[in-house]
């Protein structure tokens, strides 16, 4: 099977600020970053249905749907064959940075290229295997509901919720970021049978220190208040004024005394002068 196309690193930055952490960057309104790892896969542009674009693996077992004007912006699934129902499904809402989705799609592309069907593997019975990158990054366990596991980031602006045995709640794992609200809370929800390594790969993106580029005007104020913002292009150094330049004018370097010989380079100070011929009478 062909290997995934390499991801380019010289694409122009689309934005005027860098947002850190990137899970507070929100969605820029397009999914280019999430689709970049599978840009070489077949694209299907649909005129009807909830998804405007569906990208599939060449054998159609992995499907990545994009609904550009819906709350559930991404629907990602995998099935044992091209015509069977999905074995697992991941739903990503409209506030989620596509840079986080890229971590999942990149892992799916690699799994498919390896040809071992790892994207259909049974999940680990141990919940920590799905969120190991978060535990390693210092996310702390919170909440005390029986049958659930919750972790929170050190800044308390992101977290993960795992339902292990609560029958009154939907099974699965949900990564979230941002304050509650229709325009601020990012959510990535994995169904119960999602392979653990896919959740872990997505969770690792929440700990990635790489900032996300955004247009400052499009960033939700509540997200901007919680994130660190830096200009994409640093401000230019101030232009020196005439007053700054005045001390430099008219100053000449001192001329060393006695260090520059006045004679030819062929004659040294110790060389004897030629004898003067005797005068004729």
From TrEMBL:
**Biased composition, class Pro residues, residue ranges:** 232-241
Against Pfam families, the record matches this protein to: SPDY (PF03771)
Region described as Disordered: 230-281
Spell out the Low complexity composition-biased ranges.
264-281
Residue ranges annotated for the DUF317 domain, each copy included? 56-110
InterPro entries found in the cross-reference section: DUF317_SPDY
Q: What is this protein called?
A: DUF317 domain-containing protein
The organism is Streptomyces antibioticus
């Amino acid at each position: 099977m062909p290997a995934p196309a390499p991801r380019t690193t010289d694409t122009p930055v689309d934005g005027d600020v860098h947002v850190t952490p990137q899970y507070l960057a929100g969605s820029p309104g397009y999914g280019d970053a999430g689709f970049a790892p599978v840009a070489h896969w077949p694209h299907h542009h649909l005129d009807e249905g909830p998804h405007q674009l569906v990208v599939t693996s060449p054998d159609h077992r992995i499907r990545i749907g994009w609904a550009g004007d819906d709350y559930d912006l991404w629907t990602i699934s995998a099935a044992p064959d091209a015509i069977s129902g999905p074995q697992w499904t991941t739903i990503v809402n409209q506030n989620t940075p596509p840079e986080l989705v890229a971590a999942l799609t990149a892992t799916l592309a690699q799994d498919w290229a390896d040809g071992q069907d790892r994207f259909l593997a049974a999940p680990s019975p141990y919940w920590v295997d799905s969120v190991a990158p978060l535990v390693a990054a210092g996310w702390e366990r919170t909440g005390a509901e029986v049958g659930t596991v919750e972790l929170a980031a050190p800044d308390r602006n992101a977290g993960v919720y795992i339902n292990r045995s609560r029958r009154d709640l939907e099974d699965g794992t949900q990564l979230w970021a941002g304050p509650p609200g229709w325009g601020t809370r990012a959510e990535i929800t994995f169904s119960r049978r999602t392979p653990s390594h896919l959740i872990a790969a997505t969770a690792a993106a929440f700990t990635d220190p790489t900032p996300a580029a955004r247009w400052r005007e499009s960033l939700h104020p509540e997200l901007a208040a919680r994130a660190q913002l830096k200009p994409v292009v640093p401000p230019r150094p101030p232009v020196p004024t005439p007053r700054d330049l005045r001390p430099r004018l008219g100053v000449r370097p001192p001329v060393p005394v006695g260090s520059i010989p006045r004679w030819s380079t062929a004659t040294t100070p110790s060389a004897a002068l030629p004898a003067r011929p005797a005068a004729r009478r």
